[in-house]
Structures are given as C-alpha cells and as structure tokens.
Amino acid sequence: MSLDLSISALHAQYASGELTPAKLVDQLKAAISESDPLIWISLTSDERMASILGNLEGESSQTKPLFGIPFAIKDNIDLAGNSTTAACPDYAYDPDKDATVVALLIEAGAIPMGKTNLDQFATGLVGVRSPYGFPKNPFNEDFIPGGSSSGSAVSVARDLVTFSLGTDTAGSGRIPAGLNELIGLKPTFGSLSCAGVVPACRSLDCVSIFTKIPDDAATVFSVAAQPDSDDAYSRAPSQTNWFPADNFTFGVPQAEQLKFFGDAEAEILFTEAVTKLESIGGTKVTIDFSALLEAALLLYEGPWVSERFAAIEEFITSQPESLFPVTHKIISGGGAPRAVDGFRAQYQLKELKRRADLVMASVDLIVTPTAGTAYTAAEVEAEPVQLNSNLGYYTNFMNLLDLSACAIPAGRLASKGMPWGITLVAPALSDHALLDLANRFGGAESSENSLPHDWIEVVVCGAHMRGLPLNHQLTDRGAYFLREDSTSSDYQLLALPPENGLPPRPGLIRKEAGKGASIAVESWAIPADQFGSFVAGIPSPLGFGKLTLAGGKIVTGFICESAVPEGSTDITELGGWRAFLSAEAS
After folding, report:
1. Is residue 176 part of a domain?
2. The domain that contains 545 carries what CATH number?
C-alpha cells in the first residue's frame, strides 16, 4: 500500500468521500500484517478499535482536528485495553485508563493503531535493546533504527501511521528521527503530560512526536500540549519565543567541539545544512558549546541515573534477571550514588545552566548534528555502551538545561544509504518556532529531492526491490533505498513469463488516463557512473523511461514495451509485484 498519510491529505479524502476512517484502518491493518512485525509489541484490540471508530461517526475534521488520523504509541505510554510493557514482559501491567496525552489525541479524533517496540525501560539510543527483537531500519536493514523510541519512528517511516508518540529523556525522540528521515519534536519539558507514562527520569522525561512533515507535528503538538493536574511537572504551553522570519542568528559549535566520529560524509552534510540555513535568512555565529557538553556528561556519568533506578527499584531488585543485560547494568548503577553526590551535581548543573543560558541569549537558536554518524547493528553489538554514548553527544544535555529541540532531515549518507539530520535547539517554549523553521528548511520533503551530486533516482517495480532476487544488481553498484512509493493511476502491471534462466519479472505499461491503476514501486538512488552498466543488463521487453508517481513527480524507472511476450498475465488488480508474489506463494 502506498497512501499519503499526511493530515491534510487524509482530511481531503475524508471530505470527498473517497475514504472513511474504518476503511483506512482496514488498509493499515493489512499493511501492518505485511510489514516488519518487530515494530509492534501489541496492536489495538478489535473491541477498542470498534469503540474508537464508533465515536467518530457523524464527526469530521471540522469538529475534531485529528479526525481519522492514525498514530502509534511507544509501549511505555498507557493505552487502555493494551498491556504496558516498557519492553519488559515480566514488568507488564494493564492500565485502567489512557495516558493523558493519548486521551487528548483520541478525543481529538486520532486513531491508535497499537503499541510500539523500544529500548527496554527507554534506556538507550540504539533501538536494539529489547527482548522482543528490534525493528529493521527501513533505509538499510544492516543499520540500527535508533532508540529508545525505535518502533515509533519506524512505524511512521514505513507509512503505517501518520504520527507516533515516543519519549525523550536523553535523545530518544531525536536519534530515531534522524536515522529514519523524520521530524522529531522534543517539546519543552512539561508541555506534554507524562501522566500514564512509565518514568525513566521523572524530572526530565518528555513525550515526543514523530511525523514526516513539520505541519503535522505542529497540529499534534497543539492538541496534546495541555496542562494536566495529574502530572506534577506539567507546564502551561505558552509560546513565548519566535525567530525573525528573514534575519535570525543560529549558533554552531566551534570546529573542535563538533564530532562526526570519522564520518566525512556527515561533516559535509552539516556544512551544507549550515549553508542552507544561511540561504533562508540565517546568520551563522560560532559559539562555545562546552557548557552544554559538560552538562550532557551529568546524565549518565552523574547521579541522574539514580532516577532510572528509583523508577523501577522494587522490580529491578526483586527480578534482576527480567532485564536486558545491558539495561540492567546501566540502571542498577543508579543505586550507588549518595545524596551528597546528588547535591554536588545540582550545584554543578546550576553553574553550567548559567553559562549555557548566556550562550543561548547570544543567538536565536543553536544548530547541531542530530547524531554524528550512523552505526550498524553489528557495530553496536560489539561496542554497545560507547556507541550509544557517541549517539548522545548532541542530545544528552537538552532536558537538563530546559531546552526545546526539533530534529529534521538534512540529506543522506550515500555510502551507507542512511538518512542524516540536524537538530534545531532553542530555549523552552520555542516549540512552534522550531517547527516553523523546520518547515522553511524543507523538513522531510527536502531530502527526497536532494540527492548527492552525480546520483540518479531510479524507480523499480519488481525483482530489483528490497529482498528480491535482483536487488543485488543495485546494491552491488552502491545504490541505496530512498522510499516506497506508487505510480499515478494510469498503469498496467503484467507478470512476464520466466525465460533464459531469469526469475519472473513485472512489466509496467502506461495506459490512457483513467484506464489503469496505481502500482506500488520503490525509489532508489544510484551513482551516475553506475547507471549505464545497470541499464545495459536489462533484457527486452523491459527498459528505462519516464514514469509518473502518484504525487505527479516524473522520474526515471522501469517501463515495458507494449509488445509483450506470449504468456504474460495481467496482475494490475493486485496493485504491485510483492502482492503478486504473496498471492503466488499462497
């Protein structure tokens, strides 16, 4: 399935009668059943879903701002009718009501599809610390999805929901966004209620928002940011900070304070992002980033880890074997610091915040990489603590210093086939201002049209797609996956008969307007100097030409001659090659 799940697109389809919330849920359930099962820990029960859909009857986007908008919930946030596990089966409990933030979203018309996987007890930035397994990164399955909100990010990246909820104490809402080409809003501390959220560090925890575009994050934030008497840390969500539209200043750390951990491509992308910010009205100011970096060290190397221990002290003491080994090692260390260590750390943090506030006052915002680089799952398995620490280099200080932040896409690491992004950082209560700037920067949409120099976007529709027999012809040439997509509704799809030792192949033929269908495809980026050899290996009747995607974009992709081999079968009604293979297998 390829469907525009943005809020505006869904509301337009609802208004026209093309779609209903119930029909969308059925489509999404089918897509979820065919997608990576490790994204989810549990799906919303049929009984609860029926109740939610029933409450939407007679409503519309005019009465409910999130009418019919599907979302996912990190499984340390309560959804009544589903167990909350925090990725620890022995810890699981059944909440008797929704978390406050979930209740607000459902009341506004949003539809919860289920609970997503995470680093156990939200402890980690890697996304692989779960006894349930871990979601595969949609862009390169060798790489980590990022954590701790791994499933929440991947569910949005794979177009299974419009938005998702994560939590962000040390970067768990920004690192997965950066590694999945998403908007990752870490709101001002206290602006989204944490009532009904399993605490990690109660005095620092934030509920975060993942979307593909900034406007959707702004809509969700506006609904969810409400004071809550059930949360002692709740904060009135007033917007006090805005950036001048065409003349803002942004701080960039001194060169020696920037770390890319040996990733030269990431360093180039950061330089390009800075240039882009300058092109939309920003003025770069070099800042001393040391106070923020020193504050970051306090989160795991200081007594704040004791908050993680306090959150589950009884459980970790009585059932230590129930925890993931690396998670137990980190959290159990929180039982050691003394009260005097806590006070000394508070004094240190107060001084660091004074220094950081002076830096923030000198600019409108700060810009950093979201993460210096991206790591494979194998690399993280070999060095789980150090690489997790590397990922937190630009994130761990945020809540300690009461800052708001928004992670946004800023290109691709071509050699890794992985997204890469930057984070916009500003004082508390700058959430809408950050999303506004993210919109101007280009957000998630910019990366789809900003390939590295000398690369070509190619659309494939059959055996060259991920996991299929001829995909190696792309990956052997250094190509990397961009996204799942679909053609305009003017195409016929044929199954060509096997011949000359080749596997069955699809033939995509352009038809007259209104006489075809929309066909599922994949977009890939291939080095320009490899494109010729790739095309040369494609046998007749297949070739390359221009085809039109559902959004109207014209791209280079596989096409089929109208004179097709005898024995070809029309499989247009199945909507794509993977659906054909599934039907054949059954």
Report:
1. yes
2. 3.10.490.10
Same domain, 443 and 462: no
Domain end marker among 418, 448, 478? 448
- Are 145 and 177 contained in the same domain? yes
First to last CA, the chain: 19
Half-sphere exposure of 61 (CA within 13 A, CB side): 17
Residue 359 belongs to what domain range?
Answer: 7-293+350-448
The band of 238, judged by pLDDT with boundaries at 50, 70 and 90, is low
- 469 & 403 share domain: no
- CB count in 10 Å sphere of residue 113: 24
Beta-carbon contacts of residue 309 (< 8 Å; ≥ 6 apart): 316, 331, 332, 333, 334, 335
Instruction: Check whether residue 528 and residue 573 sit in a common domain.
Output: yes
Cα separation, 8 vs 216, in Å, equals: 8
> What radius of gyration do the chain's Cα atoms show?
24
Total domains, the chain: 2
Distance of CA 111 to CAs 19, 59, 196, 224, Å?
A: 15, 13, 18, 14
Strand partners, 544: 558
Considering 2, 148, 404, 518, which one is annotated as catalytic? 148
Q: Do both 435 and 462 map to the same domain?
A: no
Amino acid at 350: K
97 flagged as catalytic: no
Distance of CA 192 to the CA centre of its chain: 19
Q: Could you give the count of Cα atoms lying within 13 Å of 68 in the half-sphere of its Cβ?
A: 28
Does residue 276 carry a catalytic annotation? Answer: no
Q: Could you tell me if 134 and 282 lie in one domain?
A: yes
* Nearest C-alpha neighbor of 366 from the set 538, 445, 248: 248
Contact 568, 494 (CB under 8 A): yes
Per-residue pLDDT, 567: 82
User: Is residue 172 among the annotated active site residues?
Assistant: yes
DSSP 168: -
Q: Looking at the whole model, is its pTM more than 0.90?
A: no
Q: What's the DSSP call for residue 89?
A: G
Same structural domain for residues 12 and 146? yes
- In angstroms, rounded to a whole number, what is the distance separating the alpha carbons of residues 509 and 132? 42
Choice among 74, 212, 276, 353 that is catalytic: 74
* pLDDT tens for each residue of 172-229: 999 999 999 999 999 999 999 999 999 999 999 999 999 999 999 999 999 999 999 9
